[in-house]
Design brief:
Monomer. Keywords: Cytoplasm, Hydrolase, RNA-binding, tRNA-binding. Helix 1 crosses helix 5 and helix 2 crosses helix 3. It is globular and about 50 Å long. The longest helix has 24 residues. It has about 200 residues and is of the alpha/beta class. The chain is built from six helices and seven strands, in the order βαβββαββαβααα. It has one domain: Rossmann fold. It has a seven-stranded mixed beta sheet.
Length: about 200
Amino acid sequence: MPDPSNADEPVLVVGLGNPGPRYVGNRHNIGFLVADELAARMGGRFKGHKAGADVLEGRLEGRRVALAKPRSYMNVSGGPVVGTARFFKVDPPRLVVVHDELDLPYGTVRLKLGGGENGHNGLRSISKSLGTRDYLRVRFGIGRPPGRMDPADFVLRDFSGAERRELAYHVDRCADATEALVGKGLEAAQNLFHTR
């Protein structure tokens, strides 16, 4: 877990999504949207990294952070995540993964350490590549698909018009939660963001 008293111990924050213009507005790409917001706050730009991710180094909440977006597809994101973590010498408890979550209502943000993958192929790939599930997650609720729609189709669809009207607010709040997690630690961030 990030030690709030050790600001020079790096944390790796990974936003999950699929690369390319076809996927930009998809629910599955919420991790990329949050990573882009964090990059704007850090005042930097992503650059291609040999580990297979776009990476930005800087500080969040006064702490050293490597912010990354894997360049691979979601279901094989484990390789780039592990490669980036090794490069920056970040062990799993200092890895923060921002991702979409079907089991939470739209716009809900929840933070946790470890646990299952709930059928999320990106998390499954990361857990398998790391050899552990004990990394931090920032879960952004996208809700369940309507009717009998396959969840795999639902996550690869764009947010609805009604959802898009509130999306910037929710992305901003998710970025706030990620910053709090990095700067204050899991329990303090949960106390701030799980009550609303």
